[in-house]
Amino acid sequence: MHTSRHTMPVGRFVAVTLALAMAALSNAGCGTTVTGRPNAAPSNATPAGPATEVTALESPPDGSGFSTEPLDQPNPAPGITWAARDKVCDWLTPDLATAIGATGPAQPGTLGCVVPVTGHAGDTAQIAWTFPFQALHEPTHFARPATVHGLQARQFALHGQGPGECTTQVNTRSAVSLHLVVWNPTDPAAGDHEARCATALRTAEVLTARYVPLAGGTPYPGTPQQPDPARLAKATACDVVTKGAANLANLDNQPGTPGTEDNGDTTCYHTSPHAEAHATLTTRGADRPTREIIGLPADLRPSTDPTDLACTMTINLSPDHHLRLTYHITGQPPAGADQSRLLGLACAFVELLAATTLNAIHRAN
To answer: Rounded to an integer, what is the distance from CA 67 to the centroid of its chain?
Structure first.
């Protein structure tokens, strides 16, 4: 998934992401492992190390894989899809700004809160609570795992960024991850990316300690956690599963195709060259929830048909409203691909679609 500091992810990146993920799960040679991509590091970077064999769908040493941890935690702060865009910096309170070394006022940006910070002259931090922690499939200048208060994290710079930049992401096990970029807007290639990584890591430690429950924090007051039943009563499936949520789950950035079943349940269909998703907003929920997603009872069921690369998640949004999502991988799998791994990929993407959907539901709250 493209995670540029400047813009939201766009369609030409997300289609490639799933295609690359499918190709990575080819069993050519060993069947159950994929090779971690070696990273072309800038001259002043510490090399990320040789390619390493890692189990598919688990995080490889460079932090680029899907997390296998459940999304069972509350949202620490409002995500980037929050409707109150003018309040996107409200959670960065004056004492927090001082603690992270802010040297000037914070300003709402295109993707989060932008604040000048100490370090190389002109350094700026962009701080956002973005989509859930997920795979990286784009080339990087460097990438490596990190830990923030015991939470899974990673630091990297994509090739679309300057080699002097550092991005840090923290898995909060909620619908949003903490996403920090420290860079120099005037000259992205200038300066030491290691120093900026240190700044980003310190900032992440301060923010997670304040707002992430697993790090001892308390979510920012007013952060939406569960859908508004009053809004759900008026919603259709396409109102809930928006094009933005679908796009973050590797589907086309286009409105879904709406429909209505004979019993009155509304449906929404999203597609891409590699996958499709069917959503149904219904009064029939998960009878025996097997997990939680952002505090909501849910059930995850892979297809039992070995030829059907599909996975279904049902989420109890409220006592009277339930969302059923089915994610199908429709692209041609690579020759010799491990079907069980591809089915696991479908389940990973349906959980991602569920999390981004729950984020999008809060936009009107």
So the answer is: 10
pLDDT score for 90: 87
Beta bridge partners of 142: 157
125-136 pLDDT tens trace = 999 988 778 777
CA–CA distances in Å: residue 308 to residues 152, 271, 331: 32, 16, 12
- Residue 84 phi/psi, 5-degree rounding, is -80, 70
- Cα–Cα distance for residue pair 165/123, rounded to 1 Å: 10
Look at strands 257-260 and 296-302 and give their pairing: unpaired
The pLDDT value recorded for residue 86 is 64
363: left (phi over 0), alpha (psi -120 to 50) or beta: alpha
Say which residues have a Cβ less than 8 Å from residue 176's Cβ, sequence separation at least 6.
75, 76, 77, 79, 80, 129, 130, 131, 132, 359
Q: What is the pLDDT of residue 345?
A: 81
Beta strands in 122-209 (DSSP E): 124-130, 140-148, 151-158, 166-170, 177-183
- Intervals of the chain under pLDDT 50: 1-16, 20, 23-58, 363-365
Residue 102 per-residue DSSP state: B
- Distance between CA atoms of residues 237 and 233, nearest Å: 11
